[in-house]
Amino acid sequence: MVLFCIIGEMGSGKTLTAAQLAFKNWYFRKQKLYSNFHLYKMPYYFVDRVRQFDYMHEGYVLLDEIWRLIDSRLSRTTSNKFVGDILARSRKRQLVYVYTAQVIDTIDKRIRKVQDFTSLVSTNRKETAYRVNVFRTGYIKNGTYLKTFYFTSEIPKQLYSTQEEVDMIDDSKDEGGCPEPKLMWQLAAGKCLNCGTLITANPNRCDPEYGGCGSRNIEPIQPIFFDTWEEADLYGQKYWEKWFEENNFISSKSLS
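Above: the chain's sequence. Below: its structure in token form.
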């Protein structure tokens, strides 16, 4: 349905932007979420192997570092099939693919030829506000600029770990059935037992860089698994309704 690429230098906010878009499309537009990296405080299907892509239908797909993973993990034959499947599924299965890349030239040329949107991310010095310039097609050139949107980091910085090393299992030649992606919700990676801070970025330390106390006394938080999307979605909606109320936060101000 849509192929949306996010381009930016390391640390510019590519994954943060993907998380922001995911939150907007889940919470306000009731879209199912699929992701190849772990999300916090949102329900999603975790996809970490090639054949699990067959299970995806009608939803919003987040793919972090996917082109690096394809180059380093997949054979040429599997890579060609994987790209071909993305092109077919995005339309026929009503999937929106949102993927990140540091350099646009790393994206497969077949994808770029039919890519709907390309975006460039930048941030301020404090990394609290972000600007995203959106262009039509897979080529940034004169005449393709579409719009610019802005968002703040207060919500999306809670939604993923900046230190997760994303990987993907090539099970394309495996025999037998493939396990379905797990439908899960996870509040955070852990909780500091000293100050109570919820840990997302560094699961081994209550990092002062993210407002923590520096303690390494961390209790892991396990994910909750669900059988149906409706159950997971309701759980997540209730969490954020309470969060918005407790923090006197107008939800619309976090969105462009």
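The chain has two domains: 2-186+223-254, 188-222.
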